[in-house]
Amino acid sequence: MHQILILARKEFRSYFDSPVAYVVITLFLLIAGWQFSTALFLSNTADLRSLFNMQRFILLFFIPALSMRLISEEKRLGTIELLMTLPIKDWQLVLGKFLAAYLLVAITIFLTLIHYITISILGEPDLGAAVGGYLGIILIVGVYLSIGIFTSSLTQNQIVAFIVAFVIIFTLFILRSVIVFFPGFIASILEYLSIDYHFDNIARGVIDSRDLIYYFSMMFLFLFLTVQSLESRKWK
Amino acid sequence: MISLRNLTKYYGLTLAVDDISFDVEKGTVVGFLGPNGAGKTTTVRIITGYLAATSGSVLVDNLNIETESLEVRKKIGYLPENSPIYLDMNVLDYIKFMQSMRWEEGIINGRRIEEVIEICGLGDVLQKNNGELSKGYRQRVGLAQALIHDPEILILDEPTAGLDPNQIIEIRNLIRKLGSQKTIILCSHILPEVEATCNRVLIISRGKIVADGSPTQLQASFEGKGILTLQIKNNLDTFSEKITSVPGIERIISSEPVSDNLVEMHVETVKGTDPRENVFRLCMETDSVLMEMKRVETSLEDIFRELTQKE
What we know:
heterodimer, A: mainly alpha, 12 helices, about 0% strand, globular, B: alpha/beta, Rossmann fold, Alpha-Beta Plaits, 2 domains, four-stranded antiparallel β-sheet, 11 helices, 14 strands, about 35% helix, elongated
């Protein structure tokens, strides 16, 4: 267990050894803040909906950017061989890296709480919707990250990892907009797979176990696939 | 300590390791010698648990590497080929990180870190970034990482690749020093390295073990025809005529006059004989003067080349 945390700490720190984390966090906050304030003055209501909508969209790009190097870089440097001959299990490695990236994104997202403070000075925002919105975003980040870490384990090229992760995440993202083209039966499956559909429920402040199960099973699925992809080196 | 039984590894359809079996006793330094692509790295990757064998088994200290992989990994210190390290960490942080990743009750300690820094001579570069290190230092950092938990077994894959001659000698001395306390498997394609550091040599070629023994044993069992270099003065014609009939002499390879009355000859000797005495007697018989006589043995290098180049 401690090894997971040690690895997570090392990964978290290494984000700040390069400009990546600074650039990504700054950009994220700038774009989110700009979009939020524009929408605020247009709609003139004290809610965070525009902020959450914007975040979901920006995260499409930012999560793959933060996750692309997690494993691909180890493969490129060859350090994966060192890591995987240490007395720790493959899933512990994956989890350690996942947690590090998760923590970084979570901190970034909670920095946008400043907007909530702003609007609570101006008006009376719905606390339930804000809590639900943040919870939903954090869960979405988990799913995006697990996809990102999975694609990062497939290649030693960060760019490839980024693009593949983006394609998968984008597909899940737009799923809901395309269901009108499908017959009812398939449409309901696609709707269930759509990240947005579950987010809307949670963002309304309704925390339903079905939505939570969706997010957690997606995270589990892609983390599981990541472990399998790492263990594929041992296939006979 | 380590025992391999019928180890076979296919990469897809390519056979990389072909039914290898051998044992390594505690406290020996085994040189795993073979040309590039012979299957050395694959074999050690299986022992360290990075890859899995297609068939066959490996026991380390009577622990099966597949079912008790984590226990086995605790016993092994591993320096992979090219010494991969995180380029954005500094040396001290990296060593600390690798130690804490192997954290176990009682093993995490600063004293060991200091010891390893001392052994590997890293005192001057502790605050440097791994990315700025020269290849020699990089290799030493890799070694420090492999030694950090004071493992019983050390597996070094081409530890001197890309180093300059002075660094090579340093690393070899280090390996020899460590060899007195640990079981070491050293992969190399460089013969003198194995000759200088190991007390047992395994030559591997195309995934098969083709020779196994101490450097001297190998030399003895594979000793081919030796060569005598002679410098003879006076009565050259009679001497050349009779030399081929001397017991133990196979044929004259070359004969070149050095000056008017002096000739240098290379003669091949029959396998396993030493006809120097006979040559000396022949000189007395023909009244020639023996100015020089030198016997050249088949070197380990010749053996290596012969074994690994056979089609």
